[in-house]
Write a structure and sequence with these properties.
It contains 8 helices and 26 strands. The protein is of the alpha/beta class and 438 residues long. It has 4 domains: 151 residues, MoaB/Mog-like domain (Molybdenum Cofactor Biosythetic Enzyme, Chain A); 59 residues, Molybdopterin biosynthesis moea protein, domain 2 (Alpha-Beta Complex), CATH 3.90.105.10; 99 residues, Molybdopterin biosynthesis moeA protein, domain 3 (Beta Complex); 73 residues, Beta Barrel (Beta-clip), CATH 2.40.340. Strands 7-4-6-5-9-8 form a 6-stranded mixed sheet, with no helix packed on it. Helix 2 packs parallel to helix 7 and helix 5 packs across helix 6. The longest helix has 20 residues. It is elongated and about 95 Å long. The two termini are 29 Å apart.
Length: 438
């Protein structure tokens, strides 16, 4: 990987005490490279894994022209010769899915056909069965009468309708799935449709995480005066599980130099990335910062954002191993905001996953929102339909970085840009939906 210093040195306006959200995202994008480990797995085990190769279709899908619905296959030329009563055709045979009978009807004949069945030679059109009238007392089904015939209006179908062409979904040699794709259920089905039993995927990313602070207690421990339960580790666990990485939960680490160094070394020797919460703000104990800096190349940032201003990033080494390090703030909401807007994308990149940024949608603000220009804000909102049917968003209430309830009650971020000022009621704001994120 390129060194952090080499990337930073190329930025003319780099100031670790005054970075914008876009600058931080750009630095992370330029420093992080995908892990190299690759393994081959059966497609049943490939769900949510990152594809490590381009998949090229070895066959045409579908393999033959076939019927898109139940009905009667015939040559579209017959439409041009329709009489006053419409098109009348003799039924010459039947074609079922998976059973190629080899029937070759003439221009005055049709073949009873089922969805997915191979189109008979000379046929290019299927008239759906509900548009067909059977005549001569029959029901149009071959085998139930001697000479079945059908009739339908000439304008009920056009030549070429209701026929799926060979290779319409995928042609032989066409790219089906690209390297870096996170495989979803439809992708697994597509691989099966191509007859591909196994694929190469990136090995799972290993992520270690822990909280720092003498005041933190894990669930089940007695809550002494001045102490709080450690919520950050549990929210990090939940957010990381959504990324389908291998997790190493290292618990709470005391504000002690030896304990911190041992925790960092253990994490570094067993994981590809390390995420900590707490210990990177101004005024906090220097042990965490000193230990991070002593073990590798780490920079401490003050980002023009709210919440989530302090953050550390870099790479540390121990016993021949190295790992990326993300030092997040200690406040619960700040942990989630910095994770979703920086760490999530960075881990995807390290996983080798090609994941586009989550979209922003313009909606109406239900009430006024105070905002100072010069920083990006991620306020928590509830997106609903207004009385007039238009989408509008309202704040969840108190927006302090320690108010975890503001995240629990929200269904979106209200993203207020760096140069944006206060918003009047009814003004336009951009929201990022939690669906697909959380």
């Amino acid at each position: 990987m390129p060194s952090l210093q080499s990337v930073i040195s190329c930025l003319s306006d780099y100031d670790p005490s005054a970075l914008t959200v876009d600058q931080v995202a750009s630095i992370l994008d330029n420093v992080i490279e995908p892990i190299r480990g690759i393994e081959q797995v059966p497609i049943r085990d490939a769900l949510d894994r990152v594809l490590a190769e381009d998949i090229v279709s070895p066959i045409d899908v579908p393999a033959h022209d076939n019927a898109a619905m139940d009905g009667y296959a015939f040559s579209g030329v017959a439409l041009a010769h329709a009489g006053a009563d419409g098109v009348t055709l003799d039924v010459a045979g039947k074609s079922l899915a998976g059973d190629n009978t080899g029937v070759a009807p003439s221009l005055t004949q049709a073949v009873r056909i089922m969805t997915g069945a191979v189109m008979p030679a000379g046929c290019d059109t299927v008239i759906p069965q509900e548009f067909v009238e059977t005549i001569d007392g029959g029901d149009g089904d071959v085998g139930r009468e001697k000479n079945p015939r059908i009739r339908f209006a000439a304008d009920a179908v056009r030549a070429g309708d209701n026929r799926r062409l060979r290779g319409e979904d995928l042609a032989r040699g066409q790219a089906a799935l690209q390297n870096g794709r996170i495989l979803r259920p439809a992708d697994i089905g597509m691989l099966a449709s191509l007859g591909i039993p196994e694929v190469k995927v990136r090995r799972r990313l290993r992520v270690a995480f822990f909280s720092t602070g003498d005041e933190l207690r894990s669930i089940g421990e007695p809550l002494d005066p001045g102490c709080v339960f450690d919520s950050n580790r549990y929210t990090l666990h939940g957010m990381l599980r959504r990324l389908h990485v291998d997790l190493i939960d290292m618990g709470v680490v005391r504000d002690d130099p030896e304990a911190l160094e041992q925790a960092f070394r253990t994490a570094c020797e067993n994981a590809d990335a390390i995420i900590t919460s707490g210990g990177v703000s101004v005024g906090e104990a220097d042990y965490t910062k000193q230990t991070m800096s002593r073990l590798g190349e780490v920079t401490f940032w003050k980002i023009a954002m709210r919440p989530g201003r302090p953050m550390a990033f870099g790479r540390i080494t121990s016993d021949g191993h190295d790992a990326l390090l993300f030092g997040l703030p200690g406040n619960p909401v700040a942990v989630m905001v910095t994770f979703y807007h920086f760490v999530r994308a960075a881990l995807h990149r390290q996983m080798g996953a090609d994941v586009p940024p989550l979209p922003l949608f313009p909606v109406r603000s239900a009430g006024p929102i105070r905002k100072k220009p010069g920083r990006t804000e991620y306020q928590r909102g509830v997106l609903t339909r207004g009385a007039d049917g238009e989408w509008e968003v309202r704040l969840t209430g108190q927006q302090g970085s320690g108010v975890l309830r503001s995240m629990s009650e929200a269904n979106c971020f209200i993203v207020l840009g760096h140069d944006q000022g206060s918003i009047a009621a009814g003004g336009k704001v951009h929201v990022m939906l939690f669906d697909g994120l959380i």
